[in-house]
UniProtKB/TrEMBL annotation:
Isomerase keyword on record: no
Membrane disposition: Multi-pass membrane protein
GO CC annotation terms, alphabetical: plasma membrane; sodium channel complex
Superkingdom in the source lineage: Eukaryota
One annotated GO molecular function: ligand-gated sodium channel activity
Gene3D superfamilies membership: Acid-sensing ion channels like domains (2.60.470.10)
InterPro entries: ENaC
Organism field: Rhodinocichla rosea
Protein name: SCNNA protein
Main location: membrane
Similarity remark: Belongs to the amiloride-sensitive sodium channel (TC 1.A.6) family.
Length: 333
């Protein structure tokens, strides 16, 4: 009985609890009934605490239902192989090995212009041809040694001339200009006609030019000289380009073309940083000293960026760069 004390009523037990407990908040709110000021103060304090509690709960639940994500990113720069770049001069060079055939082709073009539009139309073409011939007189001597090139290949024939045709139903005011091309045996003929005489002449000239250039042997020793005439300076990632970095090939329309990093296996062409200083920088020449008037009427360079070991179809892809300006090309893999 000395250790356990039994209370006669619940009120006596509650009063003992209020006098000896260490809980100061809600118990004092209930046990301080005699002091109304103290009861009101603890009531306000309890309500403010509950309001702060529910406000914190609201913030926590709103953040939870928003499903926030903490993401840690790390960027690693891995070397990428620079793409292949092909450049061609829009005004193809006049190769000395076939200069005799090209001069003959230009004379035939003069005759066609005279036939279509009169003698004044071919005067300008004749002046340009004579000017190019006077610029390099010693080239004619070297051509004689290769005169047998045309003996086994394609020969120019005056039978392949341009003809003006009229549609009987439309009258003579609506004419078309066309031509017929056949092989050496007279078969496998190709016919074409155009509403414009100049379009027909350009197409006719280009067809003959492609057959003339097909006589050139592969691996011409002159291509390095033409490369230096076209590319004045070449740098990649601040380092000068090497002779093995470009591959020469002959395009039937643009003439000599050069592809940089064609195979894509040389570590020299590994791109480690983006930016202009770390890419390919070229200073190109677009000279027209050996201009072929009917093949190209513009000056500039044709550029195509493509994958490695891909044949560049420059007639349908790529873009032109005109001389006298600096052009910056940004690419993204």
């Amino acid at each position: 009985e000395g250790l356990i004390e039994f209370y006669g009523s619940f009120k006596e037990m509650f009063e003992f609890f209020c006098k000896n407990t260490t809980i100061h908040g809600t118990i004092r709110l209930v046990c301080s009934g005699r002091n109304r000021m103290k009861t009101a103060f603890w009531t306000l304090l309890l309500l403010a605490s509950l309001g702060m509690l529910y406000w914190q709960f609201a913030l926590m639940f709103s953040q939870f239902w928003a499903y926030p994500v903490v993401l840690t990113m790390s960027m690693d720069s891995e070397p990428k192989m620079f793409p292949a770049v092909t450049i061609c001069n829009l005004d193809p060079s006049r190769f000395e090995l076939v200069s005799e055939q090209l001069e003959q082709l230009e004379r035939m073009a003069e005759e066609s212009l005279t036939f279509l539009y009169g003698p004044k139309a071919s005067a300008r073409l004749s002046q340009l041809r004579d000017r190019n011939r006077d610029r390099d007189k010693d080239g004619a001597i070297r051509v004689q040694a290769w005169a047998n090139l045309s003996s086994a290949g394609f020969r120019l024939s005056h039978n392949f001339t341009l003809v003006r045709m009229w549609d009987p139903r439309a009258g003579k005011k609506h004419s078309r200009v066309g031509f017929q091309l056949c092989n050496s045996t007279g078969g496998n003929c190709f016919y074409t006609s155009h509403p414009s005489g100049m379009d027909a002449l350009l197409e006719w000239f280009r067809f003959h030019y492609m057959n003339v250039m097909a006589q050139l042997p592969p691996g011409l020793p002159q291509h390095q000289q033409h490369f230096q005439d076209l590319v004045y300076s070449c740098q990649y990632d601040g380092e000068p380009c090497r002779p093995s970095d470009h591959v020469h090939f002959h395009h039937p329309v643009f003439g000599s073309c050069y592809t940089f990093n064609s195979k894509g296996t040389d570590p020299f062409w590994a791109a480690t940083k983006p930016g202009i200083p770390y890419g390919l920088s070229l200073i190109l020449r677009a000279e027209q000293k050996e201009h072929i008037p009917l093949l190209s009427t513009v000056a500039g360079v044709k550029v195509m960026i493509h994958s490695h070991n891909q044949t560049p179809f420059l007639e349908h892809e790529g873009f032109h760069i005109r001389p006298g300006i600096a052009t910056t090309i940004g690419i993204r893999q």
